[in-house]
Design brief:
Chain lengths: 378, 325
């Protein structure tokens, strides 16, 4: 490996990237747009679920209950209707996800028997949303019913404390507000780096084949290793730059708490970049067309990184076979690492296992790529 | 072309090819080719497209592996040690293969780095290459914006930047206008005069005149090899007469049976007649025409051009190929 040749290749590559609008777009524009698109677009929190109310009684008690829905962060009263068909129509139009019907004898039954049924109609087309909405609704109603009970006891002059023998007090660690954004965004950085990294390098060798420059390059004394590392160095620099963009956007714009150290972040990100850049390079060596290589790179990086990395879809809820498959996914390790660094403040000492996987992965792909490039035409 | 060097000398041979064969599947692209090129010699490869010229050159550069045979360049076994050969050669491929999105200067600097041209010499060598290619003032121009002839000369400049003793030029003048071609050959001669061994392929038959020796290649085989003069003297296997007459058809038919005539073919609006002995035929033929009541307006001996030689040899080779098949 001669430094002079390495430098010649790297400088040439930088000039070519600089003059190739397509590479520049992938390198500079894609991370930004992806960060904002997915950062805002993917949100698993259900807030302000639109609710349609049908208050058949219109009493103080029924309005008290409905006010609790309005006050809740999870619901917004979108519509108040006065007939049943209107409520059905609101749900059919998907203006509302949840309909709350207060019966005409609500306060009467509440006073007489201490209990009163409230009907909730949930739009079940999205069963996940429906379940969550129903759970939230049940919680609102139950907190109201607790309040009513206390008030009744009060009125009856029984002032003794209602003691609940056991109570679960849960406390969430690392993502105290259970903001889905806080765990999605660090994973998103991994997805974007995988996409951008492999896309960029997938063009680098295939471009030389397509333009006929490879024939001359092969006839020179340059070695396969010099070509590979000379070409990867500029993309690693670009990868660092992109990673810095994404991480800054994550920490400053989306306000994801960053509790780890920059050193750990830098080291693990470099490992991950080594893997994805080499994958793109390997594809570029194997597939001698820019379009072909970049398409395959898209399929082998983006899809698994989105679906099998645990970035959004929890791995422990996947079928066993798929779970085993995710161990082959390099993105899985980086997603684990980057979430831990961001949210838990984990350091290298805690992250040695996924890091080791990345190291092994990086070595394997780099080795494969180095072996795949033959200085011959056929 | 008086500085022709004898390429058969053992000591001076920079390129030695022995019984070279290259197959692509069932197709035999190079069929038992042997030749030598001496130090400072310009060897031309001529022949139609697909004859195997580029394949031989690529094998010599170590880009393709031969199926059989031995190949030495600068005394190095190319099959065994292709990497070591590369320090000693410059290569210009048939398809333009510099970086079009880099400037003239950036391309030169790139190859200077790849060949590790000493830093203190690089500026001077780049200057030389730019002057040679006539690209002064265009150092900062993107290669894509240069005309074909300039691109080719720059490619030659890049190929000689590291002063290789051996140059492989694969159809360097194809698609280049005649004046640029002429200029390109002048450059090749300057390099050869400095002791560079040049193997150059072309499909322009007239360019063989510029070579010290030329090999005519057809269907993967060398069918003639020699200096342009040798080829013109001996390769035809006879001497050439020029014949002009009113109606070509009956004359051509009559010539096929005429005594002493090997072959006759239409050449423009005249007939070139290949005869075993020009002196005899110039006496015999007029009598024969008298018998057949044919009256040629002109009959005289001419010196064959290389094109005569090549057209005749390739036609004969094709005919042999058909007979064999």
């Amino acid at each position: 490996m001669k430094l002079r040749r390495l430098k010649a290749i790297a400088v040439k590559e930088v000039l070519q990237i600089w003059r190739d609008p397509r590479s520049l777009m992938i390198a500079l524009l894609l991370p930004f747009t992806q960060m904002f698109m997915f950062g805002y677009g993917v949100n698993l929190d259900l807030k302000h679920i639109p609710v349609c109310t049908f208050d058949r009684e219109g009493s103080q008690a029924s309005q008290d209950l409905l006010k609790r829905f309005q006050a809740s962060l999870y619901f917004t009263i979108a519509e108040n209707v006065t007939t049943y068909p209107q409520l059905v129509a609101a749900i059919n139009r998907a203006d509302c996800r949840l309909g709350i019907i207060v019966p005409p004898d609500f306060s009467e039954r509440l006073n007489d028997t201490g209990t009163a049924p409230v009907q909730a109609i949930v739009d079940g087309t999205d069963d996940n949303t429906a379940n969550i909405a129903f759970g939230y609704a049940a919680a609102v109603v139950s907190s109201y019913s607790n309040a009513v009970q206390m008030a009744q006891l009060d009125r009856q002059g029984r002032t003794f404390q209602v003691v609940q023998p056991l109570q679960v007090q849960s406390r969430v660690w690392f993502n105290e507000d259970l903001e889905s954004r806080n765990f999605i965004i660090p994973g998103l950085v991994a997805v974007i780096m995988a996409l951008v990294g492999a896309q960029l390098t997938s063009l680098t060798i295939s471009r030389e084949w397509e333009r006929g420059t490879m024939e001359l390059l092969v006839s020179t004394p340059v070695t396969a290793g010099e070509v590979m590392f000379g070409k990867l160095i500029p993309y690693l620099l670009l990868g660092w730059l992109d990673a810095a963009f994404c991480l800054i956007i994550a920490a400053l714009w989306f306000a994801v708490p960053f509790r780890g150290t920059l050193g750990a972040l830098f080291l693990t990100t470099t490992l991950f970049l080594a893997v994805v850049l080499s994958i793109g390079y390997l594809l570029s060596v194997l597939i001698r067309s820019q379009i072909g290589a970049s398409q395959i790179a898209l399929v082998v990086t983006l899809l698994p990184a989105m679906l099998l990395s645990g970035y959004v879809f929890p791995i422990d809820q996947m079928p066993t076979f798929i779970q085993k498959l995710t161990y082959l996914m390099y993105a899985r390790y980086y997603v684990t690492i980057i979430k831990a660094i961001f949210l838990k403040g984990s350091g290298i000492a805690e992250l040695w296992a996924p890091m080791l996987f990345l190291v092994v992965y990086a070595l394997a792909v780099v080795l494969l790529a180095a072996r795949a490039f033959r200085k011959r035409l056929a | 072309m008086t500085d022709a060097v004898n390429g058969n000398g053992e000591a001076g041979a920079q390129i030695v090819v022995e019984h070279l064969v290259k197959r692509f599947g069932d197709f035999v692209a190079v069929d038992d080719v042997s030749f030598r090129v001496g130090h400072g010699e310009i060897m031309g490869f001529l022949g139609p497209n697909g004859a195997g010229k580029s394949t031989i050159i690529r094998i010599l550069c170590g880009l393709l592996r031969p199926s059989a045979g031995r190949v030495f360049v600068a005394g190095i076994d190319v099959v065994r040690d292709p990497e070591r050969v590369r320090e000693h050669i410059g290569y210009m491929s048939q398809k333009f293969s510099l970086y079009r999105d880099l400037t003239v200067e950036e391309n030169l600097r790139f190859f200077g780095g790849i060949y590790r041209v000493p830093r203190d010499e690089l500026a001077e060598r780049m200057r030389f290459a730019i002057d040679m290619a006539g690209l002064g003032g265009r150092e900062k121009a993107l290669v894509a914006t240069l005309a074909g002839g300039w691109q080719q000369r720059l490619a030659l400049g890049c190929a000689v930047l590291h002063r290789p003793p051996i140059l492989f030029l694969d159809e360097p003048t194809s698609g280049v206008e005649p004046t640029s071609r002429r200029r390109f050959w002048d450059l090749i001669h300057t390099l050869a005069a400095d002791g560079v061994t040049v193997l150059v392929s072309t499909h322009y038959m007239d360019e063989a005149e510029y070579c010290h020796r030329a090999a005519l290649i057809n269907q993967g085989r060398i069918i003639a090899l020699g200096s342009p003069d040798e080829l013109k003297r001996t390769a035809l296997g006879g001497e050439l007469l020029l014949l002009e007459c009113e109606v070509l058809g009956p004359m051509l038919a009559a010539l096929q049976q005429a005594p002493g005539v090997v072959d006759a073919s239409v050449f423009g609006n005249a007939i070139h007649v290949l005869v075993r002995d020009a002196g005899h035929s110039l006496v015999e033929l007029p009598a024969y025409f008298e018998q057949k009541s044919l009256r040629p307006s002109r009959l005289e001996r001419i010196h064959p051009s290389l094109e005569d030689v090549f057209v005749r040899l390739i036609a004969a080779d094709m005919a042999r190929g058909r007979q064999a098949a």
